[in-house]
């Protein structure tokens, strides 16, 4: 339990003034803490002994100073309450930001699923296996690295060397990829007519 909870409801200026007078009256610097707490809480019916004890323990250093005043104690308490309010406000703001980020992430996931479904609705079913095929994964399998989750720099160099130079996204590249897709479709249609299993993509 934090100090704010132990102090109870916010102490008013009049309560602090009355507490400070009782503290001085009972010679708290020499008397035992339990006796002072019992005496002060008896004359402050709106405060429990635990609240009085928390206030004393929280500001024991200040209360022991000869130049301590009730105004100074109230100013310190006010700073404590203000800092607590600022911390709670910041914590609430951070929680709200986390909720916004979580909601945004959830929307992005839904959007990605919708986009995939949207793309699939505009592609022929015959092309599903073609677009699901990954030449990169085939390369990893051939190198006995299909199970890798991470690769070292030397392994990445070997993978890049095995796959050759990357192609530039150009009209020629698109033309070749489209021709590859058309060849795949022709083979699949032939296989369907012959009622045989679809071929692997090459």
Automatic annotation (TrEMBL):
The keyword Coiled coil does not apply. Residues 122-198 form the DIRP domain. The keyword Zinc does not apply. Keywords: Nucleus. SMART domains: DIRP (SM01135). GO terms for molecular function: DNA binding. Pfam families: DIRP (PF06584). It is found in: Nucleus. GO terms for biological process: DNA-templated transcription; regulation of cell cycle; regulation of transcription by RNA polymerase II. This is DIRP domain-containing protein. It comes from Aphanomyces astaci.
């Amino acid at each position: 339990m934090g100090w704010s909870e132990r102090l109870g409801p916010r102490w008013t200026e009049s309560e602090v003034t009355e507490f400070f007078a009782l503290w001085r009256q009972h010679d708290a610097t020499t008397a035992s803490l339990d006796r002072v707490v019992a005496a002060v809480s008896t004359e402050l019916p709106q405060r429990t002994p635990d609240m009085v004890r928390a206030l004393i323990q929280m500001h024991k250093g200040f209360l022991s100073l000869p130049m301590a005043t009730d105004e100074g104690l109230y100013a310190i308490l006010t700073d404590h309450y203000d800092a607590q309010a600022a911390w709670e406000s910041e914590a609430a703001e951070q929680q709200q930001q986390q909720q916004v980020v979580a909601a945004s992430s959830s929307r992005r996931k839904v959007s990605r699923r919708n986009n995939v479904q949207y793309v699939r609705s505009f592609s022929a079913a015959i092309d599903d296996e073609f677009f699901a095929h990954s030449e990169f994964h085939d390369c990893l399998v051939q190198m006995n690295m299909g199970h890798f989750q991470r690769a070292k720099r030397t392994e990445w160099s070997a993978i890049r060397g095995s796959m050759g130079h990357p192609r530039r996204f150009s009209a020629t590249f698109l033309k070749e990829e489209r021709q590859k897709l058309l060849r795949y479709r022709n083979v699949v249609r032939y296989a369907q007519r012959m009622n045989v299993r679809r071929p692997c993509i090459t």
